């Protein structure tokens, strides 16, 4: 903790109310222009960030959907091929395909 700081001065009336702080000095026209311009810039930056986030979400969905379709097609083809081989070897009667899950 820094010990060189002076404690804040709380200005109170004898009745226990806080006194009004010193009113701020009126800003110059340049200060008002900068305040308005800064607020507008922050609003534009927030809107741009939201659009960027939405664009990234659409891009991710556009990349993941074909990936899921491809993986599902490969998995289905693999199961179909194994069932076909099992039926051709007579391991499973036609129309009855059993899948076994091995837990280790």
Radius of gyration: 36 Å
- What portion of the residues fall into strands of 2 or more residues? under 5%
Query: Largest sheet, if any?
Result: none
Tell me roughly what share of residues is in helical segments.
Answer: 55-70%
* Series of H and E elements: H
Structural class: mainly alpha
Number of strands: 0
Mean of pLDDT? 85
Q: How many separate helices?
A: 1
Q: Uncertain spans, ≥5 residues at pLDDT below 50?
A: none
How far from one another are the termini? 57 Å
Shape: elongated
Keywords: Membrane, Transmembrane, Transmembrane helix
Transmembrane segments: 33-52, 58-81
Region (Disordered): 1-25
Overview features:
1 helix, 0% strand, single chain, 104 residues, mainly alpha
Could you walk me through the main structural features you see in this protein, from its secondary elements to its overall organization?
This protein is 58% helix and 0% strand. By secondary structure, it is mainly α. The longest helix is centred in the middle third of the chain and has 60 residues, at 29-88. The protein starts with 28 loop residues before the first helix and ends in a 16-residue tail after the last helix. Residues 1-25 are annotated as: Disordered. The chain crosses the membrane at residues 33-52, 58-81. Keywords: Membrane, Transmembrane, Transmembrane helix.
């Amino acid at each position: 903790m820094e010990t060189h700081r002076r404690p804040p001065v709380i200005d109170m009336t004898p009745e226990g109310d806080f006194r009004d702080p010193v009113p701020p000095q009126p800003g110059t026209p340049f200060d008002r222009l900068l305040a308005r311009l800064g607020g507008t810039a922050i609003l534009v930056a927030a809107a741009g960030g939201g659009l960027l986030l939405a664009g990234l979400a659409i891009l991710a969905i556009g990349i993941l959907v074909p990936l899921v379709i491809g993986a599902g097609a490969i998995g289905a083809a693999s199961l179909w091929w194994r069932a076909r081989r099992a039926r051709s070897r007579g391991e499973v009667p036609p129309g009855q395909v059993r899948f076994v899950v091995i837990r280790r």
